[in-house]
């Protein structure tokens, strides 16, 4: 037995940006050069107009030639910045996706049960893309903002009255922009809620298409879908129209004021306090005020989106909300396979769902993060549960639905954490074992195993990457898959589709059993793993399990009591307590509830 220590990893957005600081710096520099080109182009154009209005044609032609050179450099810089962005944006997103996916593997099973699948997908896939794209947009908007601001200042320097008019107009536009953002947030929140309902319903329809067809639910679900889509369209229409109204109002005001500015300029030309060249500059750059106001509002929105997306991503590293598996530092080189529960207590706790953080402000987001999660319900499963399983024995847990059978397996494999008491393997508390020891010691075959979108062989090699062809063939034979695989054109190299969609329920379970057998762990757990098998396949698997007796510790939860006739010991559960223990014959002879369960099972 030896101890190992794992170092915790702190993560933030800045560490990913710092990793590629040279590329990011080059991107910003090149983009700023392109932005400077826009400013120079405008200023030189203004100079050319001035030369033309004063009949200095030669100077005007030279200036226009300089403008052509500036345009070429500007376009080249924009093209180069695009190449740099594509290169480093993909690297940053790949790094973020990988680290977030790795962190997702560390979360415990209870965390997944407490949160919707969509939340994990958003944080691992969508949010990194949102952050990287918005950071690029920020550089774009900052450049546009600086360009527009310089031109506004340049125009303002032409005349004091023009400057005062621009300041008043700018202040008014910023007030309108603040009102627009406030209304948008409320309307967008409502629109997203409606869209979430469509997303959830669509996911359920795709996953349950066979049940829908067999029960004739197409018309009913079509009605529900129509209602959800109508609600979403209505919310979207409200959002778009109100946003359009604010944009239209603001733009009308800016454009009307721009015309008034030109009228003022024309008047000042008439009284000889403004030149025609200056008037042309004001006219040609009249749109910069709209660009500046739009950029200022958008920059704030993007900062909020980046902050929210970053907080959402890295909340996966917050152990208060997304609880990780915890492992000790004790390493066992040779696990014998004894299992013991000592006074174990466990309750299933449900928490109140948090608000959708996509629409929270920074202040609200911080408050939610620091707020203690509210408990909705507590269901006590076990209280002081104790038993011991000897190494290399085969035992089964039976009982009616809800008696705690599968929960025992989840606690045994550390998918769930005990509230109090201890679960021990070879006399060591599993909380003190390191990850390598615990994971290599136990193989778990679930009732509904997940089969990956790859070939049969690749699915098996996930369990043991260096498995020989003979080991694979033996596992396939023991799991009663030989005849099925032989009937396939590509045999073991046949792809099974996403979630093993090309396989029947029984074939999935047999493949999962073969995967577990290939690992050859000292402890093998079967959780209703023969429930989808026909009688012939079930008998074959039963013989396979019997052949493992004395070689591994076998723990079985079975719905069909006939499959556990030959186990060494049966634990009969009722309401979270072990009501009786014995062999099959002993329980059948002495326990009326067990006997009734057996008869009910065989009458089905």
Please describe the structure with a list of short key phrases separated by commas or semicolons:
disordered N terminus, 12 strands, 20 helices, ABC transporter transmembrane region fold, 2 domains, alpha/beta, four-stranded antiparallel β-sheet, 604 residues, elongated
Characterise the protein shown here.
It is a single chain. 62% of the residues lie in helices and 12% in strands. Strands 8-9-10-5-11-12 form a 6-stranded mixed sheet, with helices on both faces. Strands 4-3-6-7 form a 4-stranded antiparallel sheet. A two-stranded antiparallel sheet has the order 1-2. It is α/β, with parallel strands linked by helices and 604 residues long. The chain has 2 domains: 308 residues, ABC transporter type 1, transmembrane domain (ABC transporter transmembrane region fold, Up-down Bundle); 269 residues, Rossmann fold, CATH 3.40.50. It starts with a strand and ends with a helix. Strand 9, helix 18 and strand 10 form a beta-alpha-beta unit.
Structure summarized in a few sentences:
This protein is α/β, with parallel strands linked by helices. 62% of the residues lie in helices and 12% in strands.
Q: In CATH terms, what is the fold-level topology of the largest domain?
A: ABC transporter transmembrane region fold
User: Major sheet, described briefly?
Assistant: 6 strands, mixed
What is the terminal-to-terminal distance? 49 Å
Q: Largest beta sheet: what is the strand line-up?
A: 8-9-10-5-11-12
Put simply, the count of helices is 20
- Reported CATH architecture of the largest domain: Up-down Bundle
Uncertain runs: 1-8
Overall structural domain count: 2
CATH superfamily of the largest domain: ABC transporter type 1, transmembrane domain
Top CATH class of the largest domain: Mainly Alpha
Rg value: 34 Å
Shape: elongated
Please report which band the strand proportion falls in: under 5%, 5-15%, 15-25%, 25-35%, 35-45% or over 45%.
Answer: 5-15%
The share of residues in helices is 55-70%
Average pLDDT score: 79
Tell me how many strands there are: 12
Strand-pairing-aware structural class: alpha/beta
């Amino acid at each position: 037995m030896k101890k190992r220590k794992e170092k915790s990893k702190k993560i933030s957005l800045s560490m990913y940006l710092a990793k590629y600081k040279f590329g990011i710096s080059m991107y910003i520099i090149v983009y700023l050069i392109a932005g400077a080109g826009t400013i120079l182009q405008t200023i030189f154009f203004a100079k050319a107009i001035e030369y033309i209005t004063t009949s200095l044609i030669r100077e005007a032609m030279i200036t226009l030639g300089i403008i052509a050179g500036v345009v070429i450099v500007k376009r080249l810089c924009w093209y180069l910045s695009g190449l740099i962005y594509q290169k480093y944006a993909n690297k940053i997103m790949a790094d973020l996706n990988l680290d977030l996916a790795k962190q997702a593997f560390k979360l415990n099973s209870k965390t997944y049960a407490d949160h919707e699948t969509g939340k994990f997908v958003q944080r691992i896939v969508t949010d990194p893309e949102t952050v990287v794209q918005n950071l690029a947009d920020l550089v774009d908007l900052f450049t546009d903002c600086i360009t527009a601001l310089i031109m506004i200042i340049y125009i303002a320097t032409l005349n004091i009255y023009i400057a005062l008019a621009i300041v008043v107009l700018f202040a008014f536009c910023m007030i309108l922009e603040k009102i627009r953002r406030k209304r948008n947030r409320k309307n967008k929140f409502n629109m997203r809620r409606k869209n979430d309902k469509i997303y959830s319903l669509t996911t359920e329809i795709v996953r349950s298409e066979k049940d829908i067809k067999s029960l004739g639910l197409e018309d009913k679900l079509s009605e529900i879908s129509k209602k959800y889509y109508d609600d979403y369209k209505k919310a979207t229409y409200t959002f778009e129209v109100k946003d359009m109204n604010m944009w239209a109002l603001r733009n009308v005001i800016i454009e009307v004021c721009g015309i008034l500015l030109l009228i003022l300029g024309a008047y000042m030309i008439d009284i000889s306090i403004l030149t025609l060249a200056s008037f042309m500059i004001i006219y040609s750059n009249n749109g910069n005020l709209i660009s500046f106001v739009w950029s200022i509002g958008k920059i704030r929105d993007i900062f909020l989106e980046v902050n929210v997306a970053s907080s959402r991503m890295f909340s996966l590293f917050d152990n208060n909300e997304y609880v990780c598996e915890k492992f000790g530092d004790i390493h066992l080189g040779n696990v014998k396979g004894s299992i013991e529960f000592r006074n174990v207590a466990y309750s299933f706790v449900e928490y109140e769902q948090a608000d959708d953080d996509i629409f929270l402000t920074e202040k609200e987001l911080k408050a939610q993060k620091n707020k203690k999660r509210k408990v909705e319900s507590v269901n006590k499963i076990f209280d002081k549960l104790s038993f011991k399983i000897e190494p290399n024995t085969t035992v089964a847990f039976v009982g009616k639905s809800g008696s705690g059978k599968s929960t025992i397996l989840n606690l045994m494999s550390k998918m769930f954490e005990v509230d109090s008491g201890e679960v021990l393997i070879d006399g060591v508390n599993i909380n003190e074992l390191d990850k390598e020891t615990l994971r290599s010691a136990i193989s778990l075959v679930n009732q509904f195993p997940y089969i990956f979108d790859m070939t049969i062989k690749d699915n098996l090699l996930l369990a043991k990457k260096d498995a020989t062809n003979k080991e694979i063939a033996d596992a396939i034979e023991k799991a009663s898959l030989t005849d099925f695989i032989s009937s396939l054109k590509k045999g073991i190299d046949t792809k099974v589709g996403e979630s093993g969609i090309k396989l029947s329920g029984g074939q999935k379970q047999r493949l999962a059993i073969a995967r577990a057998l290939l690992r050859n762990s000292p402890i093998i757990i079967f959780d209703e793993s023969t429930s989808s098998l026909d009688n012939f396949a079930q008998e074959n698997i039963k013989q396979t399990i019997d052949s493992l007796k004395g070689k591994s510790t076998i723990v079985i939860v079975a719905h069909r009591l006939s499959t556990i006739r030959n186990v060494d010991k049966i634990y009969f559960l009722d309401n979270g307590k072990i009501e009786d223990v014995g062999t099959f014959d002993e329980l059948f002879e002495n326990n009326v509830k067990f006997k009734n369960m057996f008869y009910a099972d065989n009458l089905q």
